[in-house]
Design goal:
Layout lengths: L2 H15 L13 H15 L4 H22 L8 E5 L2 E20 L5 E16 L2 H5 L5 E14 L4 E2 L1
Antiparallel strand pairs: 1-2, 2-3, 3-4, 4-5
């Protein structure tokens, strides 16, 4: 490495160690800004309470169950129909959002493992014709899948 590259690297390291250089038009930091920054760092360093973590898990659960409800197939709006014997049977699935429950277990280093449970109901509608089966108002639940999603709390947020 030549001397000019070494000097450039050393000067950059010194600038970074001394607080860096600002190229923006922002005002110089005031002592009040330093106090606010220290408080923000202290809040980030302090572990979140178990109640806040539980509330975050419930929020993550609602989002995840909402995504499952949007992505379930076949949806009611796109039912599939097939002939079974002399009648037609239309099928679809829906996620029961009201069935959601959450629980969490402590892990290592302030991390948690969360369990989000919900039900996915599968329906069948019958009719004499394919169109009648697809437009049927009375459909019955033929299967309920109990789903469990595992999520991880990394110290700041729930990841799934």
């Amino acid at each position: 490495m030549n001397v000019s590259k070494m000097l450039t690297i050393c000067s950059l390291a010194a600038l970074m160690a001394l607080g860096g250089v600002s190229c923006s038009d922002s005002k110089a930091p005031s002592p009040e800004d330093g106090t606010a920054a220290q408080a923000t760092r202290a809040e980030q360093a302090a572990p979140a309470s178990r109640d806040k973590i539980q509330a975050g898990l419930e929020e993550a659960g609602r989002k995840l169950v909402g995504m499952a409800a949007e992505n379930v197939t076949p949806k009611k709006s796109r039912m599939t129909a097939a002939k079974r014997g002399k009648t037609y049977v239309a099928k679809y699935a829906e996620v029961d959002r009201s069935s959601m429950s959450v629980s969490m277990q402590p892990g290592k280093n302030g991390k948690y493992v969360g369990f989000i449970r919900y039900a996915e109901n599968h329906y069948e509608c019958t009719g004499k014709t394919k169109a009648a089966a697809l437009k049927a108002q009375e459909c019955s639940v033929v299967k309920t899948r109990r789903m469990t999603e595992m999520v991880q709390y990394d110290g700041r947020q729930w990841r799934y």
